[in-house]
Amino acid sequence: TNLIEIKNVNKIYDNGVVGLKDINLNVKKGEFLVIVGLSGAGKSTLLRSINRLHDVTSGDILIDGQSIQHASGKALRMMRRNVAMIFQNFNLVKRASVRRNVLSGRVGYYGFLRSSFGFWKKEDVQHAVTALKRVNLAEKFYDRADALSGGQQQRVAIARALMQEPKIMLADEPTASLDPATSNLVMDDLKALNQDLGITVVANLHNEELALKYGSRIVGLRDGELIFDKEADQVSESD
Ligand code: ADP
Ligand code: ADP
């Protein structure tokens, strides 16, 4: 079954730049999809369309059979809860503790209130510990986020994303600011979520080697167009 359906999607930015051109793409539950392409190819634009960080210009995007592009209010919030995202620059609150950063991933009105005031239910704290264990950082619970290495910060961001119990994890160049060894640790964590929790992963990677190592399927973009879509073991040099 298709968890994500992208149908005839075009994205033209306000300044006239074409971000995406007639994209059609289905992602099945449990896939580890990697999107490759040069800088400016539209990878980020595509990812941001999936959780509707921005609206597309035409076409539709369905999550679990429901249009996120046409959803609003509570329905949209519920859909977004199923779609977590991590970024190249981690987006942690640097001066706050790891604990506080992870707990802030608990979404919803009460989650927001608690993250502002620092009150948490026992079950939320337990959940945060479990999430940090999944990225092998339980011992960093009380450390300040900016005391951690880049790779550790990205893994905290993954733990924070897990707090919303997502079905889909979007990763926008998650390793772009990391060295190769650390990149592998971050990708290993994403792979584990995919295999152990059944979370569907869609990751933008410009590093070909990582794309081939971790992706079960590789999609190529160029100038906003989808130029190939293959199982990882069928990708050849010419792609
Ligand atoms: P990638 O992630 O593959 O590097 P992007 O999706 O960031 O590519 O960019 C695709 C194209 O859209 C590029 O030409 C880029 O300059 C343009 N673009 C991205 N974001 C914006 C924006 N907010 N406003 C206008 N153009 C944008
Ligand atoms: P990426 O690393 O994905 O290529 P960029 O460094 O191109 O991203 O863009 C960084 C930010 O600037 C993003 O928020 C993107 O949406 C925005 N942006 C990119 N290109 C343009 C553009 N041509 N006009 C306006 N904003 C842009």
UniProtKB/TrEMBL annotation:
Alphabetic keyword roster: ATP-binding, Cell membrane, Membrane, Nucleotide-binding, Phosphonate transport, Translocase, Transport
Gene3D superfamilies according to UniProt: P-loop containing nucleotide triphosphate hydrolases (3.40.50.300)
Protein's UniProt keywords contain Translocase: yes
Top-level lineage group: Bacteria
A molecular-function term among this protein's GO annotations: ATP hydrolysis activity
Cited PANTHER family: AMINO ACID IMPORT ATP-BINDING PROTEIN, PHOSPHONATES IMPORT ATP-BINDING PROTEIN PHNC
UniProt key word Cell membrane: yes
Annotated GO CC locations: membrane
InterPro entries listed in its UniProt record: AAA+_ATPase, ABC_transporter-like_ATP-bd, ABC_transporter-like_CS, ABC_transpr_PhnC, MetN_ABC_transporter-like, P-loop_NTPase
Membrane-spanning ranges: none
CDD domains: ABC_PhnC_transporter
Residue stretches making up the ABC transporter domain: 4-239
Name of the protein in question: Phosphonate ABC transporter ATP-binding protein
Pfam hit, one: ABC_tran
